[in-house]
From TrEMBL:
Gene3D superfamilies: Impact, N-terminal domain (3.30.230.30). Residues 23-128 form the Impact N-terminal domain. Pfam families: Impact_N (PF01205). GO terms for cellular component: cytoplasm. This is YigZ family protein. InterPro entries: Impact, Impact_N, Impact_N_sf, Ribosomal_Su5_D2-typ_SF.
Length: 203
């Protein structure tokens, strides 16, 4: 998470499938990078198809940086025995914008609530351990509108500061979508805003 540093951690790609076993029950763990809550349901449904004999597909997700949102789902397991232990590992690893799911195939022996908590926690931890996690800079996006004659001013500013061009349209009237580190966004906004021939707005 950001923790005032302008940095957060997330996954670069989905994890490999991991397997944790306890008294013949199988717990398959997965971690997926996501950007929206709408991505969760299709992933969970795909896991149900992949493991047609599964008794439960439990999961937790978190989205956002400054004020993150999360949800934990026990999918029929005893209350707080699956989703919250999974979410606890998301918090432990300090990652966001991800879904962690654990698929359980019952092995014939009941594990009890304590055993379930331990198993779901272990599978989630193994999935995150096997993931590629990277640090990213918290950024803000702006739209710049300006005439082509102002291009040299704009490009000089972009080269002098940590500004990335996300998209650009260059005609008589130009439009750039730029991203800047959140820690520098106020300074860069003010610089462009003071130039009467250049329009900047946050998007």
């Amino acid at each position: 998470m950001e923790n005032g540093t302008g940095i957060y951690k997330t996954l670069t790609r989905p994890s490999v499938e991991i397997l944790f076993k306890d008294r013949k029950s199988k717990f398959f763990g997965y971690a997926f990078p996501i950007q929206t809550e709408e991505e969760v349901k299709p992933i969970v449904e795909e896991l149900r198809k992949k493991h047609a004999s599964a008794n439960h597909v439990c999961y937790a997700w978190q989205l956002g940086i400054d004020n993150p949102r999360f949800r934990a789902n026990d999918d029929g397991e005893p209350n707080n025995s699956a989703g919250m232990p999974i979410y606890g590992q998301i918090q432990s690893f300090g990652v966001t914008n991800l879904l962690v799911a654990v698929v359980r195939i019952f092995g014939g022996t009941k594990l009890g609530v304590g055993g379930l908590i331990q198993a779901y926690r272990a599978a989630a931890e193994m999935a995150l351990d096997s993931s590629d996690i990277e640090e990213r800079t918290v950024v803000e996006n702006f739209q710049l509108d300006f005439s082509y004659s102002e291009m040299s001013k704009v490009m000089r500013m972009i080269k002098q500061h940590p500004i990335e061009i996300e998209s650009q349209k260059m005609e008589m009237d130009c439009c750039f979508i730029i991203s800047v580190p959140k820690s520098r966004s106020d300074i860069i906004f003010e610089y462009f805003n003071e130039l009467p021939s250049i329009s900047i707005r946050k998007i």
